[in-house]
Amino acid sequence: MIEDSETIEEFLAHGTSDVEEAVRKAAATEIMPRFRQLAAHEVDEKTGPHDLVTDADRKAEEYLTATLGALLPGSVVVGEEAVHANPLTYEAIRGEAPVWIVDPVDGTRQFVHGNPGFCTLVALALGGEVLASWTYAPALDLFATAIRGGGAALDGVPLRSGSPAPDRPLEVATSHPDFTTDDEKRALLSLRTEGVRTRPCGSAGLEYLAVARGELDATGFSWEAAWDHAAGLLLVEEAGGAHLTRAGEPFRITGGNALPFTAARDAATAHRVAGLLAGGA
Predict the structure, then answer these.
(1) I need a labelling partner for 184 at 20 to 30 A (CA). Which of 6, 176, 177, 237 fits?
(2) Does 269 have pLDDT greater than 60?
(3) Predicted pLDDT at 200
(4) Gap between the Cα atoms of 175 and 130, Å rounded
């Protein structure tokens, strides 16, 4: 836990293991016991049949909200489910207090269908800048961390995204068409060109991890929700990658981005994909 006189930098120098423990415990107590064990009454729709929430989402977020807030006095928590209940909660990302950005189950649809491709995402930000992130895929036994300026790691092993091989098409995961405007659809369709191979994205957090591991070359995402992107964007950056919006600017978790945007294994790939997205406007 941070002491009242400590700075966030001092907390990050010794407190990241406490955050990891909290994330692991949330998964062990609230998420994994419900994996492939959900009853019908434990699953609800939010905005539609592709936007689901479960008791695992709610309970894990409640646990993380209480635990993370105690670890860092004076901080606030912005969780996906809390924002769904009260959209004004999201404004804390633009505030002056340290903010924990939490997606308790990223990939809820996969979770509901018994697919292990889901994860818990936690990021710590201040003044719109992400300082640290934690990505945990409990069903896959993968835990990735990143500290701004301190690198990224997967299960304690440093991550380097590398660069795509020049002799093969870029592999790009993109937003599902159901979640895009007509303008965004046109931009994403511009990626269907020679030298690029696209597929629909799964859990955003796991797609970012795939980029950081060099298993996926880039993403093409069309929504701004910080809980989906904050942790993964820092992970990609610290692994050597880059992110750009269609306007050629880094993505801002505070919003107002020109969408779609990309996160890629290296700066050259980010510029290439962002250029294609801009051309499809």
Answers:
(1) 237
(2) yes
(3) 93
(4) 23
**Chain segment 241-264, per-residue pLDDT in tens:** 999 999 999 999 999 999 999 999
* pLDDT score of 182 more than 60: yes
How many residues comprise the chain? 281
Core vs surface per residue 19-36: b (16+ CB within 10 A) or e: beebbeebbeebbeebbe
What is the reported pLDDT for 180? Answer: 82
Burial class of residue 275, CB neighbours in 10 A (0-12, 13-18, 19+): middle
Verify cis geometry, omega within 30 degrees of 0, for the bond prior to 166.
no
From the CB of residue 88, how many other CB atoms can be counted at a distance below 10 Å?
7
Between these two residues, 10 and 236, which has the higher pLDDT value? 236
Using an 8 Å Cβ cutoff, are 257 and 251 in contact? yes
Output the 3-class SS for 81-95. Answer: HHHHHCHHHHHHHHC
Q: Give the residue ranges of DSSP H helices in the chain.
A: 8-14, 16-26, 55-71, 80-85, 108-112, 182-189, 204-212, 226-238, 267-279
pLDDT reported for residue 137: 98
Judged on CB neighbours under 10 Å (0-12, 13-18, 19+), 87 is: exposed
How far the first Cα of the chain sits from its last, in Å, is 47
User: Do residues 24 and 137 touch, judged by C-beta distance below 8 A?
Assistant: no
